[in-house]
Write a structure and sequence with these properties.
The complex is a heterodimer of chains A (243) and B (565). Chain A is an alpha/beta fold and 243 residues long. Chain A has a domain at 83-150. In chain A, 37% of the residues lie in helices and 25% in strands. Chain A contains nine helices and ten strands. In chain A, strand 1 (2-11) and strand 2 form a beta hairpin. The longest helix of chain A is centred in the last third of the chain and has 16 residues, at 165-180. Chain A is globular. By secondary structure, chain B is mainly α. Chain B folds into two domains: 2-288, no CATH class; 331-561, no CATH class. Chain B contains 21 helices and no strands. In chain B, helix 3 (61-95) runs antiparallel to helix 7 (181-205), helix 5 packs antiparallel against helix 6 and helix 18 runs antiparallel to helix 20. Chain B starts with a helix and ends with a helix. The chains are: A alpha/beta (243), B mainly alpha (565). At the A-B interface, helix 2 and helix 3 of A face helix 12 and helix 16 of B.
């Protein structure tokens, strides 16, 4: 479960995130959508413990990320939008490194790493340095590394960036599988079709505030129009559909 | 011309915006950098001024020495300019991220090439002003040069820079035509480093201090032979030397040939450069975009080393240290600096081995112990110099992948201390080796040997903490090359604070050590008051060391906790 209480982030006088209040039940795939500069990535970075909120609280499965950061991070899997990695490590070394950060060791770890490399079709590249990977391969490696400690909450920023159709399909299936097993997926995306397809709940954020939230049907009601998420999104955020 | 202006504008606009953005800290930065710069300029100026005054007092050979020195200085500048242009041209012409944008624009290849060459000249030749001006000013002052000399400096520097830039860019274009840009960078970095190390070692082993002591030579011929600078009439630096010397010594002869040689060469190499660019620049750029090589170098040795180093630690800290060790040995820009470290240590030890202790008018045993004491400070300074290269960039070395650490359960405190412990042991070993071996060469007393070993042992704890802590306070996660981190503002602050810390420890120990040694040599007892003074000083040293560990690490932790991406 994820809960925000008056979550606020102010950068040099600008409110990037402005008093967000939200509760996402366990086992939900939650879509966080909004125009550029709406505060999506800032919110996600605060959830992952990469940024500190100016005000407010974030609870991950009941753990306050500000008060118990290590405990909270142990159950989070974070997938950022830009695949910045340690270029001089090989894929397999990176997964071992990531597992080490979560205190994992032992014989079973080796098997798990190989399974993940197989799942994301990186086995042939396991011993190559990450600097020789393509953008999509780096993105797949990051997703694999986020799964290594079996997180209960997945926080993902633009999951499909750089992925080919096969990779994108795989990721969608994995998210659905995780949610079925009780994990919560918090996903920020510009791909509205993806949000409509996989998310059980969606929040539309604009200028740091949630301007609409609920299921697709509830959003239709709030916007007063029927149809796909794109039209609803444009109407709520002041795009073409409003005209 | 309009497109050329447009292509070079981002650098200037970016610089202006950078100044605006960092307005809050800019005053402190400008003050520190200006202060250090002025201090450096004045030191260099007075060093050369004193040397030239001394030369001018020597009849017959004075002017020969000064002219040879000028030739050597200009030759060194010219060589450094070429190397500097080679390194910066590779980034500016082949590796910069905005090159894709430039090449996909309607700008012509020559316009792109010229704009990038312009960047290269700006990035590479500022050092001529920083290092060269005080030297040339010293010449002007000593030889009472007129305005024409100072105007000649500008007039001579311009073609010299153009020649060096064209040659440097030419070398890189040819190299990238045959090797991928990443490999070319590795080769160049390695060759440059080897060259610097060889020059450094050669210069030291030639013992230039003997030149001001002609008595050390068997004959006049031998002395004049030693004076002979590596000069050649075919080198542009030689033509520049002749032109400047004519102004300094007020030669009545015209220098038409040197004028013509300097300017026509500059023009010719620039034209050849543009011609070569038309032929091979784009082919090289295209090749540079290809996938980087794969690497398997030294994996097995590395794996063993990592497992031995990290075995006793927890899995999270082990992971960080193992990652750092792997990255260090796989990143050529990092491990290759070990060569510089090696040269620094060799010269340091060599200096002690050639000390003429037996010829000193001071009683040898006093001198040995005094030198041993000063040696603590010198060794501390060597450790600081090594730390600024390797430890100060430790936090920055995470680069843009720092999000992985921040989003992991590893606390910032454990992360920072993992960096600290990873570097502490190697630095302790290096420091103790330096101090014990040099003390052995000096044949010091057991007391001084023990004191030096213990003092340097504790100094290293503070020096490493200062490196890790200040490295976290002044991080640079967006560097293109990790070696850049040490040369920034934070590196300068680290060197200043580290030197002050070492000086304070030495000052606190100096008095009590003198009292103990005096009492020992005079066979007198140490008074009660002296004991209080000695104990008090050493307690202060202990507190200072604790402070030097605790404060920078706390400041570093605060900086990481407040990191805003």
């Amino acid at each position: 479960m994820i809960r925000f209480e008056n979550l606020t982030k102010i950068y040099r006088g600008i409110r990037a995130v402005d008093g967000l209040n939200l509760e996402i039940p366990q086992g939900t795939i939650f879509g966080f959508i909004g125009p550029n500069g709406a505060g999506k990535t800032t919110t996600i970075k605060m959830m992952a413990g990469v940024l500190r909120p100016t005000r407010g609280r974030i609870y991950i499965n009941g753990l306050d990320i500000a008060k118990e950061p290590s405990k909270a991070k142990r159950i989070i899997g974070f997938i950022p939008d830009q695949p910045f990695l340690y270029e001089k490590l090989s894929g397999i070394e990176f997964l071992r490194f990531k597992a080490g950060l979560y205190g994992m060791k032992g014989n079973r770890l080796g098997e798990k790493i190989l399974d993940l490399l197989n799942l994301f079709e990186l086995s042939d590249w396991a011993d190559e340095l990450i600097e020789s990977y393509s953008h999509g391969m780096k993105q797949r490696l990051i997703i694999a590394s986020a799964m290594i400690h079996e997180p209960r909450v997945i926080i993902v920023d633009e999951p499909m960036v750089g992925l080919d159709p096969k990779g994108a399909k795989l990721v969608k299936e994995i998210f659905k599988e995780w949610a079925k097993e009780g994990a919560t997926v918090f996903m920020s995306t510009h791909t509205l079709a993806l949000a409509q397809e996989v998310c059980q709940q969606i929040a539309i954020v604009d200028q740091g505030r949630i301007v609409a939230s609920g299921t697709s049907e509830e959003l239709e009601k709030q916007a007063g129009i029927e149809g796909d998420l794109e039209r609803i999104f444009l109407k709520i955020t002041g795009g073409v559909a409003r005209k | 011309m309009r497109i050329f202006k447009l292509l070079i504008s981002p650098k200037f606009v970016g610089f202006r915006n950078g100044l605006k953005k960092s307005r809050r800290n800019i005053k402190i930065k400008i003050l520190t950098l200006t202060g250090t710069g002025i201090l450096f300029w004045l030191t260099l100026f007075f060093l050369f001024y004193r040397m030239l005054i001394y030369f001018s007092s020597q009849e017959i050979i004075g002017d020969i020495l000064a002219r040879h020195l000028l030739a050597m200085v200009l030759l060194i500048f010219f060589s450094l300019l070429i190397f500097s242009h080679i390194i910066t041209a590779l980034s500016n012409l082949y590796l910069s991220q905005d090159l894709e944008l430039c090449h996909s624009s309607p700008a012509s290849l020559i316009e792109i090439f010229l704009s990038r060459s312009f960047y290269t000249v700006i990035d590479s030749s500022w050092m001529l002003g920083v290092f060269g001006l005080p030297v040339m000013m010293a010449y002007g002052f000593v030889y009472h040069a007129g305005l024409s000399y100072y105007l000649s400096l500008v007039y001579v520097s311009f073609p010299l820079v153009i020649i060096a830039a064209s040659l440097g860019i030419m070398v890189i274009m040819v190299l990238v035509r045959f090797f991928p840009a990443q490999r070319a960078r590795d080769i160049i970095m390695f060759l440059c480093l080897i060259l610097v190390v060889i020059l450094y070692l050669l210069f030291r082993f030639l013992r230039p201090e003997r030149l001001v002591n002609p008595d050390a030579f068997m004959s006049v011929a031998q002395y004049l032979g030693a004076l002979k600078a590596p000069d050649s009439p075919y080198l542009p630096s030689h033509w520049a030397t002749d032109l400047l010397w004519a102004r300094l010594a007020r030669y009545p002869t015209a220098q038409i040939l040197n004028h013509l040689l300097l300017w026509s060469t500059a023009f010719a190499v620039a034209v050849i450069d543009i011609w070569i660019a038309g032929l091979i620049y784009f082919k090289g750029f295209s090749k540079a975009q290809e996938a980087k090589r794969r690497s398997h170098i030294g994996r097995r040795i590395l794996e063993k080393m990592v497992s031995v180093i990290t075995r006793p630690l927890g899995p999270d800290i082990t992971s960080v240290i193992a990652k750092d060790v792997r990255t260090f040995f796989r990143d050529n820009s990092q491990w290759s600096q070990l060569l510089l470290l090696g040269a620094l240590v060799v010269v340091y030890l060599y200096n002690f081995s050639v000390l003429p202790l037996e010829r000193s008018p001071i009683k040898s045993i006093y001198l040995q112990n005094a030198l041993s004491f000063l040696n603590i400070g010198l060794a501390g300074f060597v450790i600081s110099a090594v730390s600024v290269r390797f430890i100060f960039p430790a936090v920055s070395s995470e680069g843009q992948a720092f999000w992985i650490i921040l989003s992991s359960p590893l606390s910032p405190r454990r992360f920072l201390w993992s960096k600290y412990f990873a570097y502490l042991l190697p630095m302790l070993i290096l420091a103790e080796m330096l101090i014990i071996y040099t003390n052995y060469l000096l044949k010091v007393t057991a007391f001084m040997m023990a004191l030096s070993a213990v003092t340097i042992f504790f100094l290293v704890f503070g020096i490493v903490a200062l490196g890790v802590g200040l490295g976290a306070v002044y991080p640079n996660f967006r560097h293109e090359n990790i070696a850049q981190v040490a040369t920034g503002f934070g590196g300068l602050i680290y060197m200043i604070i580290s030197s002050v810390f070492i000086a304070l420890v030495i000052m606190l120990e100096a008095g009590p050590v003198y009292a103990i040694l005096s009492a020992h040599f005079k066979e007198e007892a140490i008074t009660r008051l002296e004991w209080i003074w000695i104990v008090g000083s050493f307690i202060l040293v202990i507190f200072l060391n604790i402070f030097a560990v605790q404060r920078p690490m706390a400041a570093g932790l605060k900086a990481i906790n407040g990191y805003e991406g």
